[in-house]
Amino acid sequence: MQITPEQFARIERCLPTQRGNVSMTNLQVVNAMLFVAEHGCKWRGLPKRFGNWHTVYTRMRRWAKSGVLDKMFEELQREQVVRIKIEAVSLDSTSVKVHPDGTGALKKTARSPSASPAADGTPRFIWLPRMLERP
After folding, report:
1. Which residue, of 36, 62, 92, 120, has the greatest Cβ tally within 10 A?
2. DSSP category for residue 19
3. H or E stretch including 9?
4. How would DSSP label each residue in 70-134?
5. Contact at 8 Å (CB) between 55 and 63?
6. Burial zone of 64 (CB within 10 Å; 0-12 exposed, 13-18 middle, 19+ buried)
7. What integer pLDDT is reported at residue 92 of this predicted model?
8. Cβ neighbours of residue 42 under 8 Å, at least 6 residues apart?
9. What's phi and psi for 131, nearest 5 deg?
10. Taking CA 86 as the corner, what is the angle to CA 4 and CA 123, rounded to the nearest 5 degrees?
């Protein structure tokens, strides 16, 4: 699914203005993100016609951190361009219940660097967009 330049003009005000020498327009990035949302593919699986997958991913992460992505999807819904639902799933092994029989395994004596809680940082999340219906 792709949005047209006319549809993009209706939501363009909620996206940051592009400055300097940019390789991809905001329209190209939005269409690439909608492709990933519709097909559920990995970023590396993005077709070449959308450009460099890493550029799309980096801009999407920047927009997600600054709240632009939420505003953009709200505007897409408000303008009835696309219906989409975003879910964030958090998986953390400390919150998973284990059967009592599963707690008796032998423990490792030396901790690996990645096993330390400080190295792990905050729990990761998975961005799971879901297409509700096609317009």
Report:
1. 36
2. -
3. helix 5-11
4. HHHHHHHHHTTS-EEEEEEEE--GGGS---GGGG-SPPPSSPPGGGSHHHH-SPPEEEEEEEEE-
5. no
6. middle
7. 60
8. none
9. -80, 125
10. 135
In the three-class reduction of DSSP (H, G, I as helix; E, B as strand; rest coil), residue 41 is classed as: coil
What is the model's pLDDT at position 83? Answer: 72
Q: Which two tokens stand for residue 57?
A: 């991913």
Q: Are 5 and 11 in contact (CB under 8 A)?
A: no
- Residue 25 neighbours by CB under 8 Å, 6+ apart: 18
The terminus-to-terminus CA distance of the chain in angstroms comes to 10
The span from the CA of 90 to the CA of 9, in Å, is 34
Q: What are phi and psi of 123, to 5 degrees?
A: -60, 145
Token pair for 115: 């096993």
pTM above 0.70, yes or no: no
22's tokens = 């940019």
Strand partners, 125: 90
The token duo for 35 is 């492709």
Mean pLDDT calculated for residue range 103-117: 60
